[in-house]
Write a structure and sequence with these properties.
The protein has helices spanning about 10-25, 40-45, 50-60, 90-95, 115-120, 170-175, 195-200; strands at about 65-70, 70-75, 80-85, 100-110, 130-140, 140-150, 180-190, 205-215, 220-230, 235. It is of the alpha+beta class. The protein folds into two domains: about 10-75, Winged helix-like DNA-binding domain superfamily/Winged helix DNA-binding domain (Arc Repressor Mutant, subunit A), CATH 1.10.10.10; about 80-235, Chorismate lyase-like (Chorismate lyase). Strands 4-5-6-9-8-7 form a six-stranded antiparallel sheet. Strand 8 and strand 9 (about 220-230) form a beta hairpin. Helix 1 (about 10-25) crosses helix 3 (about 50-60) and helix 2 (about 40-45) packs across helix 3. The chain starts with 11 loop residues before the first helix and ends in a 5-residue tail after the last strand. The model has no long low-confidence stretch (mean pLDDT about 85).
Length: about 240
C-alpha cells in the first residue's frame, strides 16, 4: 500500500481507494483474501476510520470488494463479463480479454430430440441431435455449464472434432456454415444439486440461466443451448438505443 500525499489536494479517501485498487490489480490482495480492518488501515494511513470507510465503500460499489457482516471485508472474485450487444461466443470473449479459459467435455453423444429441443431446431420430436455438455473454467474456476444440441443431419461428424480446444461456431465455420444471429432468454434461478456440484457452489445460490437458439446466415436453426452461469462470477452488458 502506498503512502498518502496529504499536500497535493487529492482527497485522502481517493488515495486510499487507489492504493487498495492497485493492490487488488497487482494481486498483492488476492481474490477471496480478507483486507486489513478499518482500524488497521486508519492506523497505517494516518487517517480516520471514516476516511478509510469511504474509500472502501467506493470499491464495494465497483464490485472489487465485498463485506461479510461480522467477519470483515474481502477481495471479490473477478467477474466474467459478456457483451450481449453483439453476437460473440464465450471463447471469443475470453480471448479478447486475455482470460485464461479452459473447457471440459462432460457429455458427447447422439440422442433423440425431446420436444423443446426439437421445436427450437425446427425438427420433429425424436429426430437425432448431437448433444454436447461442457463445463467452462476461467482461471480454473468453473463459471458456466453449456448443454448444447445440434441437428445430427447437418453435422453427423461433429463428435469427431476436438470440442475442448475449438468452439462449436469455429467448427461450423470450417464446414462452411456461418453463424449469423441468436435469440436467447435470460432469467434468475437457484442452482439445483447437479449445477451446484459442477459449478462448485452451494445448492440454492443464484445462477443466471439462459436458453439460446443460434441461426445460420440462411435462417436455419443450428444450435439450441441451455446455459447455467454462476451468479457471483458472471455478468453481462447490453447496449440499448432509442
Amino acid at each position: 500500500m502506498s503512502v498518502l500525499k496529504k499536500s497535493e489536494g487529492i482527497p485522502l479517501y481517493t488515495q486510499i481507494r487507489k492504493s487498495l485498487r492497485d493492490d487488488i490489480t497487482k494481486k498483492v490482495l488476492a481474490p477471496g483474501q480478507k483486507i486489513p480492518s478499518e482500524d488497521e488501515l486508519a492506523a497505517k494511513f494516518g487517517v480516520s476510520r471514516m476516511t478509510v470507510r469511504q474509500g472502501i465503500s467506493d470499491l464495494i460499489d465497483e464490485g472489487l470488494l465485498y463485506r461479510r457482516h461480522g467477519v470483515g471485508t474481502f477481495v471479490a472474485q473477478p467477474h466474467f463479463e459478456r457483451d450481449h450487444s453483439r453476437l460473440t461466443s464465450f471463447v471469443e470473449t475470453a480471448k479478447e480479454e486475455g482470460i485464461d479459459l479452459s473447457i471440459r467435455v462432460l457429455i458427447a453423444d447422439i440422442l433423440p430430440a425431446k420436444l423443446k429441443v426439437a421445436q427450437s431446431l425446427s425438427l420433429e420430436e425424436g429426430d437425432l441431435v448431437v448433444h454436447v455438455k461442457t463445463l467452462r473454467f476461467i482461471t480454473n474456476l468453473p463459471i458456466t455449464v453449456h448443454d448444447t444440441y445440434v441437428p445430427y443431419k447437418l453435422f453427423p461428424q461433429l463428435l469427431q472434432e476436438d470440442l475442448e480446444s475449438h468452439h462449436l461456431w469455429d467448427i461450423l465455420d470450417s464446414y462452411g456454415f456461418r453463424v449469423k444471429r441468436a435469440v436467447q432468454r435470460l432469467e434468475a434461478r437457484e442452482a439445483d444439486e447437479e449445477i451446484a456440484r459442477l459449478l462448485e457452489m452451494d445448492e440454492g445460490l443464484p445462477i443466471l440461466y439462459k436458453e439460446r437458439t443460434v441461426y445460420l446466415d440462411n435462417g436455419t436453426p443450428v444450435e439450441f443451448t441451455y446455459c447455467y452461469n454462476r451468479g457471483d462470477r458472471y455478468s453481462l452488458t447490453i447496449v440499448l438505443n432509442r
